[in-house]
Design a protein that fits this description.
Layout lengths: L1 E5 L14 H11 L6 H13 L1 H27 L8 E8 L6 H7 L10 H12 L10 E9 L5 E6 L10 H9 L1
Parallel strand pairs: 2-3
Antiparallel strand pairs: 1-4, 2-4
Helix pairs in contact: 1-2, 1-3, 3-5
Amino acid sequence: MLEYTLYLNPETHVRSTQDDATGFRIFGHLHRIAQRTAIEEESYRRRIEAYPGIYKRFLQLDRYNDYKRRLVDEAARQGFYLRDAGMKITFYIPVPPSWRPGKKAKKHMTRHQSKPDIDNFEKALFDSLRPHQDHAIWQTNGMKKLWVNEPAGCIRIEVEEQPEESTEDPHQLKLRFRK
């Protein structure tokens, strides 16, 4: 069994649509400039005032894209890649800093049973590490999310050396579920 720990706070999937391209056209080129001139800064400020909803959505997508880049970098640093099967994934989510110390200690390593849903964490992980091939992942041996009383969370993935292949005929499986 191989074990990998990706040292990033787990984040959830953010679905983008064709309409979101507008936000990148309006804000994208000015947002990435570290030192904007006074004219560029004024132009950026006016765009934010004119399109506050689009700007908020742009920031959300930009943050998600940055998370995906950091996740890919962390996985590459450790030599990890997503397999088609045989993975056990645990998302460790840090407790909110606003919680009392007693509540933080009590929640450490307990089930995270509130939003966001586990499938959104899964989608973000799969979309980041297998952007055009995540449909090929056919089995995970378990997935869970836990609270941790740490300043930062992580994603731990256990991988079987050689996952078991399904010996059942998919057509027979489909027939059995129809009955």
